[in-house]
Amino acid sequence: MSQFAINIMFVGGSFLLYIAIAIWAKAGSTSDFYVAGGGVHPITNGAAIGADWMSAASFISMAGLIAAGGYANSTFLMGWTGGYVLLAMLLAPYLRKFGKFTVPEFIGDRFYSKNARLVAVICLIVASVTYVIGQMAGAGVAFSRFLEVDSTVGLMIAAVVVFVYAVMGGMKGITYTQVAQYCVLIIAYTIPAVFISLQLTGNPLPPLGLFSTHVDSGMPILDKLNQVITDLGFNEYTADIDNKLNMVLFTLSLMIGTAGLPHVIIRFFTVPKVADARWSAGWALVFIALLYLTAPAVASMARLNLMTTIYPDGTAAEPIQYDERPNWIKEWEITGLIQFTDKNEDGRIQLYNDSEAFAPTAEARGWNGNELVVNRDILVLANPEIANLPGWVIGLIAAGGLAAALSTAAGLLLAISSAVSHDLIKGSINPAITEKGELLAARISMAVAIVVATYLGANPPGFAAQVVALAFGIAAASLFPALMMGIFSKRVNNKGAIAGMLTGLAFTLAYIFVYKGWLFIPGTNNLADTPENWVLGISPLSIGAVGAIVNFAVAFVVSNATEEPPVEIQELVESVRYPRGAGQAQDH
Amino acid sequence: MSGHSYDAEAYWKANLRLIFGSLIVWALVSYGFAILLRPMLAGIPIGGTDLGFWFAQQGSILTFIALIFHYAWRMNKIDEKFGVHEE
């Protein structure tokens, strides 16, 4: 059977599984299978949150960025897990007690203002659309490879599939479908990692393999990797970095963004009890950590495997002939995501770092520039092929990558469409809208979001995980401070919250757009996105943390200069702090 | 909660104390050990690199999990002690 057929079988099979579970769950009972119906155990809910949370950024893109950046990109690992500590302690239990269904609803009620709710809707839409751009970029890479088409065609196919998937919407609400998606995703991610860890270190557990001895060389695997890549002019994988301010701010931005993203928060609105909100956050992080502890191992081992593929006889010997390149390079060349140009016309593939420091060595070896450009978003998907794993493992990773991208994209599109139809139109523009009209508005806003995200996803402002990181920065600077102050301060009033959200959002967006292009349209940036141009060395990916500080500061100053919130609002804040009497989540 | 305002205040303070302690650990393992204090941990070797690298790629994640479960467990006790737990 061809690899193409195996891929189709695995991807098709996993989709049939989700649909079958959805139908079975709907038929089986009226309420038990829905999250809102209660009775879902925190462990089950944790797995569902894991599927919702881990997207193309975590699954497809993150390990590739860690592989390229080494220690410096540990920020993704800490940032996308540490946020759950904030969620569990600062937001989830209290928002559960409050008992509403959407984030703008909480902000509108707590800050007793329709305008606050509107501003929250805007923040939510900007963050979520940016997030979807990243998902489209990742899903596009996956489709282009598995259907063996150009990456732009892959993106178009992804857009159609995501739209159909999101419109089928009902599947999202069913916890057990998401549990199934989690299972597919985690199996697909860990199986190749186990094989590769065994091959390279003899240890079947990838997180331990990362710190074990490399079988072929007898050195610790990280030492071996450092040696191989420094021989080719790259920085050491484990080297410390100078710009710690940026590293701290980037990690902080991802952490508070995690706690500010509406599609994650709403999962906690519907657990049966306040105590369950805390446990669910813990279990969610356990399930997420299974992937996040595997990812750094995948990153370093895949990078080492890539280097040994190109330099089979060691870095001192000649690299492989282009004509004898392995099949996976040929396959990825079709997508345009691996590109080879024989700059010195010797028929071999020279892969090294075109740095000034390495130029003399390269010249002495007769090299005329780096000849192989590998898109970082392909590393995880290509990983099993690079390691020569059997065809079914490659099919499995296709199914896993698509499960990750589609489940999160659909969740985000639902968050966007409910913000538009429920919070924006029904909540303020036209409260008398019919249910049919509300549904139509939801569908239209979904379609618009997909078109925008697909257009911008064709030339994304970074690799998938980087685009998603921008979305986290936006959520961090706008929604998280408002939510946290709404619970922990009785003094912050409507004016303070609105001023805080608007300045946090405007500040962060402006800084991002200056470097990434206005509205992410390529070519409209004012400054090149390079470290020399960044203010104090703070990258656009890290600015969300600064935006959050601005938001907090503005909200406090404005609130203290204006009147106290009314007594009933202060009582509301008091009541969300105590678990007793939570009851069921209330629909508007 | 109006009839128990003293207890309510003590409950909230106990919660804030627990959150504060947890967040100190949270910041120490990630921003501390993994980033700012890494040079100080450079002397402790672990599998071809140093302890700071381990905290950046694994240790902080494991600590986060422990922190959340500890918080959930302690808060359940505190909820019961102050009588604000759900039936």
From TrEMBL, chain B:
Residues 9-85 form the Sodium symporter small subunit domain. The keyword Disulfide bond does not apply. InterPro entries: Na_symporter_ssu. Keywords: Membrane, Transmembrane, Transmembrane helix. The chain crosses the membrane at residues 18-41, 53-73. The keyword Zinc-finger does not apply. NCBIfam families: Na_symport_sm (TIGR03647). This is Membrane protein. It comes from Marinobacter salsuginis. The lineage of its organism: Bacteria, Pseudomonadati, Pseudomonadota, Gammaproteobacteria, Pseudomonadales.
